[in-house]
Please model this.
Amino acid sequence: MFHRRSVADVDQWSQPYGNAELTIYETIIAQKKNECAKICLKNMLNGFIIQGKEGAMRIIGIDPGYAIMGYGVLDYIGNKFMPVTYGSITTDAHTRDAERLKILYDELKGIIEEYQPDEASIEKLFYNTNATTAIMVGEARGIAMLACEQSGVAISEYTPLEIKSALTGYGKADKKQVQTMVKMILNLEEVPKPDDTADAIAAAICHAQHAGGRMPRR
Model:
């Protein structure tokens, strides 16, 4: 099941328009309940659109989970970010394990095919005292890596400490501090929910900082 915030329906608008068109766009923005779409539409109105520009890197961040898998797709150019889409994939606890894994794979693969990220950032599995939980997260993480690999998306992995350090400068920052930085960096009015989505976006931002010196493929 998808819980998605997307701007795919406005990708065609990539240039600044005259006053007449601005009125139309402002109406669209007012009608958009989707925060991600509103931010991107405002950026487009200002004549600033990263998607499709030479030198942009599109990154998908993934927070692997069995019940909830968060994802966030961002465009990155220079030191600026634009959210493309973000959300979560959920599976029902009463569904067979194999079927849950298939749901995660199919839906994540669909997101990758639709948004064509250049690179993926996946949080590394950290030690968990609950062996069952660790195994389940490991299985979901394997599914995420398989979906990326089969789609030809380069994968980078980061520990929670690396992600926290990249966003806050402090490897032991708490979840709220990281989420606050996600909100500030993307210029959002609220922190993306659920937490898994914010964590996935954080992973994407972390990768952008580590890979910023490389020439993007886009």
In short: Residues 131-150 form the longest helix (20 residues).
